[in-house]
Amino acid sequence: MAGCATAIAIASRRPDLTVWLAGVPHGRPPVGESIPPDSRPLLERLGVLADFLADGHQPCLGSASAWGSAALGHNDFLTNPYGTGWHLDRARFEQLLLDRARSGTTRVLAGWTARTVAAQGSRLIQFTLTSPGQAPLTGTAGFVVDATGSAASIGRQLAAVHRWHDRLVLATAFFRAPEAAPPSRLTVLEATEDGWWYLAGLPGNRLTVAFASDSEHFRDTGTARWPAWVQGLADTRHIARRLSGSQLLSRELVNLSASSRRLEPIAGPGWLAVGDAACSYDPLSAQGIHQALHTGLAAADEICAGLSGPGLVCADYAARTAADFEEYLANHRHLYAAEQRFAGSPFWQRRRAAGTTTSPQRQMLSTVVS
Ligand SMILES: Cc1cc2nc3c(=O)[nH]c(=O)nc-3n(C[C@H](O)[C@H](O)[C@H](O)COP(=O)(O)OP(=O)(O)OC[C@H]3O[C@@H](n4cnc5c(N)ncnc54)[C@H](O)[C@@H]3O)c2cc1C
Hints:
FAD/NAD(P)-binding domain, alpha+beta, 8-stranded mixed sheet
């Protein structure tokens, strides 16, 4: 997604440049669907807003959360100048971006994996792409964008490292709501002893339900698998009630890391990272998709402005993206500190410790290490 956004934006500003977009599909059901109203101008800048609005995504009016108290509080988008947010049909959204990238000057290499990258002198990046049944493709590029998601597999080959701030994992299942009772247009959040649950209504009367906790909790309790997960769901006060009459679509849970982490550095000579490859966000913030689009556009601006010079380093882009992530971390600590129940829970203790330190980043990192 971040790669498509970058390619669309570069191709629209600099049709004289040759942009190659290589990528493999996720190989799992697409997860992650909530975007805020503020994403609307980004869709407009990418030239996809009209098609997006006609694509049947589910408007999202805000959230209802049992957070800091067992009762539900409401936070809606009523006063947001951009209107509602959305619960996406994620596969359709990604296809829209890919189609738009293809319709410009970008050459799309679907099904190709970026296998190796290496700096060639100070100006060029050498790369090898592979695809099953095809001979490897080797070449050199004036600039490479890492949009490989949380793997950051290009940046990490160019000496960047991950900085982890937590080890959040989400175990997700999908349901179908009864025809007579379509899902609410609010995201529902519920904090529990060992983490939190969320429920969102998707297009096509589907629902996504996820449990978020630390990897240690999943390992020790087996909650990433069906019987324990569904027991935890049954113990929720608000989420389980909203699934009454819904049909489970598959017992296979989608278990994915959703940790807060960033790449250090985010850019170097001849390369930069966008989207989750640069920084990844707790889904509670609903910022990941927005940031994937935002960083794609911002990266394109800086690449297009500087690409005539040798060994371009997008230092301003890297600094702004890092600053956005610091701001996110401050909000993230504040949000978790708002839940003061569950005093004996390691999940909440870790986050509370992170929220009260005067040196928050160091404390969060050492929490993960301990
Ligand atoms: C369970 C869960 C729930 C979430 N919920 C939300 C939410 O509600 N709202 C929100 O905003 N965000 C949410 N997120 C985060 C959001 O999904 C991500 O921030 C977003 O997908 C980032 O987009 P991206 O394009 O950077 O990375 P990705 O979407 O991960 O895309 C990376 C792509 O690169 C491909 N790839 C990987 N390695 C290579 C390689 N070597 N060569 C070629 N291609 C490669 C991958 O197959 C993939 O297609 C959630 C995340 C999780 C895990």
